[in-house]
């Protein structure tokens, strides 16, 4: 099981999501903590980066994160698919 630590940007953008989307993010974070490679997350490394990953909350919303250690994940950002443009 991984410990998830949200970055300041993640918290700010999470709060901007609707309550329904926040609930979806919460459910995916539970899965992420248990297994970052769970098929429902569709996890993949972000192109052009060495350590940043994206996981799908739904067809539009993404989680951006990286491994800090073998048991720690830093949540960098969340939001609609265009959030990837920042990375």
Question: What is the gist of this entry?
Answer:
This protein has 87 residues and is of the alpha+beta class. It is built from 2 helices and 5 strands; from the N terminus they run E-H-H-E-E-E-E. It has a 5-stranded mixed β-sheet with strand order 1-5-4-3-2.
Uncertain stretches: none
The secondary structure category is alpha+beta
Q: What spatial order of strands do you see in the largest sheet?
A: 1-5-4-3-2
What's the story with the biggest beta sheet?
5 strands, mixed
| CATH level 1 name | Alpha Beta
- SSE order, one letter for each helix or strand: EHHEEEE
Cα separation of the termini:
26 Å
- Average pLDDT across residues? 94
The CATH superfamily appears as RelE-like
As for the CATH topology, it is YaeB-like fold
Characterize the overall form: globular
Number of domains: 1
| Beta-strand residue percentage | 25-35%
CATH architecture: 2-Layer Sandwich
Strand segment count = 5
Considering DSSP H and I runs of 4 or more, what fraction of the residues is helical?
Answer: 25-40%
Notes on the protein architecture:
With 87 residues, the chain is of the alpha+beta class. It is 29% helix and 32% strand. It contains 2 helices and 5 strands; from the N terminus they run βααββββ. It has helices at 8-16, 19-34; strands at 3-6, 44-45, 53-56, 61-69, 72-80. The termini are far apart. The mean pLDDT is 94.
């Amino acid at each position: 099981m991984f410990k998830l630590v949200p970055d300041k940007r993640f918290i700010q953008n999470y709060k901007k999501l609707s309550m329904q989307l926040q609930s979806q993010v919460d459910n995916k974070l539970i899965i992420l903590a248990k297994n970052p490679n769970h098929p429902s997350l569709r996890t993949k490394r972000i192109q052009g980066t060495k350590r940043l990953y994206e996981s799908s909350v739904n067809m539009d919303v993404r989680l951006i994160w990286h491994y800090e250690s073998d048991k720690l994940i830093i949540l960098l950002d969340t939001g609609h698919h265009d959030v990837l443009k920042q990375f």
